[in-house]
């Protein structure tokens, strides 16, 4: 009998990073006989994009019906059990886990990036969800350590982010650069009290890149969060910076990144998509998951957002450029290893539900 999986995550909400996890998960399952339903922020859009039956994630009556009709509730990944933005995220997802267990369903937490969790209530809700899981796979060793600090006693496997299983980039029409300038993707994000500093540092960075014959290309990984920030950066520089605001699918974005020369990113999945197509990403650290990605790819520790300015970031990028061949070779080696480790999520699912 074909297992019916209900997928939960921040899907269909305008975040290309979370949607890249979904696409990688589906790619990993392409030879596995499963029936999928997706909890989505935009059911019609996700059905059109991925051909998966979708249920509105905020319609709790229909969510409950979907839970009762599935064989297992599956979280393909991301940092959904976190309270750094608010308690709503960890509260919503831990409620889904509680409802699924009450209905007698299996719960699989795959590719998990754990935290940040700062509040007592957030930690308590997350620990309860993780301890209720039938299968628990994290995407990096740091997440394993966080689970242990929360008192999670379930067996845990360390895999990798499922976005490493994205389908390969399609044939490109050549480099994305203009007039011989090398294109460099820029993926900033707002970050609480540091947002003004992010805007100033990245605004100054794109100016310095342009003056040194690079073509900066701004990438909003999250439509609602990054889009306004990118507009402000463009306005601060006269509104003349190319951007990819019209890209609405992770595979189209990965295709465009494959035509670039470099990537400077705060957003984790901008770095993963770059690595998927062989481009070493210079990450800017604001969260331990960013450091974990650089470490996984064999790259030097990323510069920290604290105290960062455009000049320092540009100097870091130029130093990164001088090691471009070494970094590219390291990414080529490590991305294959990461893809194999991402498959651990699929194997764990098969062991639990199929074999």
UniProtKB/TrEMBL annotation:
<dbReference type="GO" id="GO:0016740">
    <property type="term" value="F:transferase activity"/>
</dbReference>
<dbReference type="InterPro" id="IPR019896">
    <property type="entry name" value="Polysacch_pyruvyl_Trfase_CsaB"/>
</dbReference>
<dbReference type="Pfam" id="PF04230">
    <property type="entry name" value="PS_pyruv_trans"/>
</dbReference>
<dbReference type="InterPro" id="IPR007345">
    <property type="entry name" value="Polysacch_pyruvyl_Trfase"/>
</dbReference>
<keyword id="KW-0808">Transferase</keyword>
<dbReference type="InterPro" id="IPR029062">
    <property type="entry name" value="Class_I_gatase-like"/>
</dbReference>
<feature type="domain" description="Polysaccharide pyruvyl transferase">
    <location>
        <begin position="15"/>
        <end position="288"/>
    </location>
</feature>
<protein>
    <submittedName>
        <fullName>Polysaccharide pyruvyl transferase CsaB</fullName>
    </submittedName>
</protein>
């Amino acid at each position: 009998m074909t297992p019916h999986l209900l997928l939960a995550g921040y899907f269909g909400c305008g975040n290309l990073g979370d949607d890249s996890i979904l696409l990688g998960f589906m790619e990993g399952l392409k030879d596995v006989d499963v029936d999928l339903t997706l909890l989505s922020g935009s059911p019609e859009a996700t059905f059109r994009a991925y051909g998966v039956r979708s249920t509105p994630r905020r319609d709790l009556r229909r969510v409950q019906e979907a839970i009762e009709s599935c064989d297992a509730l599956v979280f393909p990944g991301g940092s959904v059990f976190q309270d750094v933005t608010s308690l709503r995220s960890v509260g919503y997802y831990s409620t889904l886990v509680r409802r699924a267990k009450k209905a007698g369903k299996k719960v699989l937490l795959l590719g998990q990036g754990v935290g940040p969790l700062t509040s007592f209530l957030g930690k308590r809700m997350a620990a309860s969800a993780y301890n209720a899981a039938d299968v628990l796979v994290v995407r990096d060793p740091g997440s394993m350590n966080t689970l242990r600090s929360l008192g999670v006693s379930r067996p845990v496997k360390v895999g990798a982010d499922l976005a490493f299983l994205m389908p390969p980039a399609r044939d490109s029409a050549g480099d994305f650069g203009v007039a011989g300038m090398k294109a460099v993707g820029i993926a900033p994000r707002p970050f609480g009290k540091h947002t003004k500093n992010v805007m100033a540092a990245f605004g100054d960075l794109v100016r310095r890149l342009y003056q040194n014959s690079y073509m900066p290309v701004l990438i909003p990984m999250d439509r609602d969060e990054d889009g306004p920030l990118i507009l402000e950066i463009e306005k601060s520089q006269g509104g003349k910076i190319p951007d990819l605001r019209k890209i609405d699918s992770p595979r189209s974005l990965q295709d465009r990144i494959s035509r670039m020369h470099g990537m400077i990113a705060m957003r984790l999945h901008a770095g993963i998509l770059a690595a998927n197509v062989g481009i070493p990403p210079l990450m800017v650290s604001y969260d331990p998951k960013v450091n974990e990605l650089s470490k996984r790819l064999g790259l030097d520790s990323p510069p920290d957002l604290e105290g960062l300015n455009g000049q320092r970031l540009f100097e870091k990028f130029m130093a990164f450029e001088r090691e471009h061949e070494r970094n590219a070779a390291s990414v080529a080696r490590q991305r294959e290893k990461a893809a194999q480790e991402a498959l651990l999520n699929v194997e764990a699912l098969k062991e639990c539900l199929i074999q």
